[in-house]
Hints:
mainly alpha; two-stranded parallel sheet; 10 helices; about 0% strand; globular
Amino acid sequence: MTEQIRCSWANPKNPLYIRYHDEEWGVPVHDDHKLFEMLILESFQAGLSWECILNKREAFRQAFDGFDLEKVCGYGQEKLERLMQEPGIVRNKLKIRAAVNNARIFRTIQQEWGSFDRYLWHWTEGNTAYETGKVSSELSDMVSRDLKRRRMKFVGTVIIYSYLQAVGVINSHEEACFCRHIKS
């Protein structure tokens, strides 16, 4: 049996990363809960590798109450201090505070658009963009600019580009990758 050809970045020594590449990355997401989880995780990635965040994903899920939007929106100072002591996550005070801030803005966008899904996918009129070899684009620039205007934090164009790739708005699987054409 021949080995599947994957994107060159997918670390073959990390089964978690391979599973993420094969089953999640680039697959269009329309569920607000999952969109929220990925936005929070991507914001924690700033300055780190995705593999690092992925390896801590379960700890993040526990620490952030399963990424329950309403719970995260309600976090106060006591919960923020507990998160700063949580050894399984990235304990960056600015990123932890940003997660709560961004949760509240995410909820506002849901109220404005009916769902975050509608807001996110309106940028491409519901279509997946196909592009490789980039870390940002005109699309990520526009989404980033709008989220910053709304006062979200850790949503620069590179982070948003990664987010758009992760949730399938942009399919960046390499041309030879077996996932390139089966995920849209």
